[in-house]
Amino acid sequence: MINWVIQNQFFILIGLFALTSAFFSVRLKTLNKKFKFLLGEGSGLENPDIQQELIRRVAKTEIKLEELEPRLETVEAISKISIQKTGFLRFNPFPGTGGDNSFVVVILDKEDNGFLLSSLYTREGVRIYAKQIYKGRPKHALSEEEMRVLEETINKQ
Known about the structure:
Largest sheet: 5 strands, antiparallel
Radius of gyration: 35 Å
Helix content: 40-55%
């Protein structure tokens, strides 16, 4: 009985080995075909006309790239000074009275340069304040709300 079990296990192992070998053989042939295609063997790329066409296309692409590089530099320069980050907060400067009619707006470029605009609403009128921001630092003193919005805006990705 034990010999029969051992023989069956042996035949199972041989069968598994044969299946594994067949799988890897098929996989190897597929990879070999893909490799030959990439190298150009059997794909028709040996044809001199096709090679010339590929060389022409690469040269054309290089010319286009040379044309686009100066334009890209201009776009990058403009993007540095364009609006990159904004922040906004409505708040009530006088707790217990009125609503959130006052606000702070922060507008910054890539280098955290820009301005902060505050509007304080009171029963007597509205006051508007503009404060310059240079490299993330205000040129004038900020209120608690203004400082909070400025910090949140600077920390935006």
